[in-house]
Task: structure prediction
Amino acid sequence: MPFSTYTSFDRDEWAALRFNTPLTLTEADLTELRGLNEQLSIHEVEEVYLPLSRLLNLHVGASRELARVSDIFLGRTVGVKPYVIGIAGSVAVGKSVTARVMRALLARWPDHPKVDLITTDGFLYPNAVLEHRGLMQRKGFPESYDVRRLVQFVADVKSGVANVAAPVYSHLVYDIVPGEHQVVDRPDVLILEGLNVLQGADGRTDDGDRPFVSDFFDFSIYVDAEEEHIRRWFLNRFRRLRETAFRDPKSFFRRYAEMDEAEAIAFANRVWDEINGRNLRENIAPTKERAHLILSKGPFHEVLGVQLRRV
Result:
C-alpha cells in the first residue's frame, strides 16, 4: 500500500477522541459564530471541534514543557511564548467559522484563556496599491498580500513583543480601513486564518532563504472540500449577500444587489472561474499536505473525516 503521512479518522472515530472534554459553548454562542451559509450544530461541535480542542490543548502543554526544558539547558528564563495556529482553505469553505469556533473553545481551557484571532485579509495591499500594480483581478493571490509585513507581525507576536498591531480589512468596502488596527498583546494562543497561510518555499529561485509565515506555526489546519461543493457554497453566499450586506449604501458591491439576478450570478461564476477557483487550484490546494490536520467536508458543510499528520 502507498505510504501516507496521515492517519485518517471517520467522524465517529474522531468523535471518540473527545473523551470527557466538557462542552463549553451554548446554542447562543453558536449563533454568533456561524457563517452566512453554514448550519453549524452543537452536535458537530461535540464530535469534531471538541476533540480538536483537546488535541490542541495537549499540544500547547507539550510545547510549553519543551520550552521550559530548553530554558533549563540554556540557563535562561525567556517566559511563555504564544502558541501559533494557522488555518487555511479556500474562499467559502468555512475556515473562518472553524477559526472562530476554535478560538471560543480554546479560550475556555483554564491553561490559556487569552486567545487572539487574526485574519490575513488585513495584510492585503490597499486597493490603490493593487490598482497601481494591476493586481485587482488577483486579489487573494499570494502576490496581493504585504507578506513582509505579515511575517514581521507573526514573528513579533511569537517573540513575545507587546502590543503588535495588525491592519484591519473591511469586507463591506472591500479595502483596508485607513488608520484602524487590531492590537495583539502577548496572547497564550494566536490563531491566524487565511487563504495562503500554509505556503512555503516551492523551489523557485526567488524564494531564497526568506521566511514564510508558516515557518512560525506550531500547528496548522486545512479545511478541505471538493471544488464543486465550494463553488456552490460561494454562489449561495453571493445570493445571500445580494439580499443583505450588498444593499448597504457603503458596500463596494452595491451595484450587484441592484443587478438582474441572472446577470449577477453570471458575474459570480466569472469571479469563481477567473479568481477564486483558479487561486484554489494554483496556490491554496497545493499547500494542503503541509497541514498538521485536515478537516474534510461533505456537500452540506459537514465534516465527514479528519486526517492527522503522524510524521
